[in-house]
Design goal:
Length: 134
């Protein structure tokens, strides 16, 4: 059930998302995490879990954002944030609380704050192994 809902949401987002050619400036981030906290706060329903489509979109976006942040952290100094305890209720609750308190910010700022404050764990990682510049 969640799998089909997620696929439907991703496809819907792809259809309505503006193309890179229509943007005046290069697009660095996109998705629910770069939307307005003022708009998002009313739509997040922490008590509904992933049955709420907005909660589901946020949780999926945060997972991807945190995974990318972890690769960047690992490449920087061989440390990462353990995401094992960060379930959907913690993610949705964290962003909902942040957005209610900071409606002028973006949800991404809540995740960035989490990353800054989180304990960083050392990992066995060879810095410089990810080559995105080919």
């Amino acid at each position: 059930m969640i799998g089909r809902t997620f696929v439907a949401l991703v496809l819907a987002a792809a259809v309505v998302a503006p193309t890179a050619q229509s943007m005046a400036e290069p697009l660095v981030t996109q998705g629910i995490g770069s939307s307005s906290c003022a708009k998002l706060a009313a739509d997040l329903k922490p008590g509904e879990g992933l049955q709420n489509p907005v909660n589901l979109m946020l949780y999926a976006w945060v997972q991807g954002y945190l995974s990318a942040a972890n690769v960047a952290l690992l490449e920087q100094d061989g440390k990462h944030v353990d995401l094992g305890t960060l379930d959907e209720s913690k993610v949705v609750g964290m962003v909902a609380s942040y957005c209610k308190a900071n409606p002028e910010h973006k949800p991404m700022a809540a995740v960035d704050d989490f990353i800054r404050k989180a304990t960083k764990l050392r990992a066995k990682w060879d810095v410089g192994t990810v080559n995105w510049n080919g």
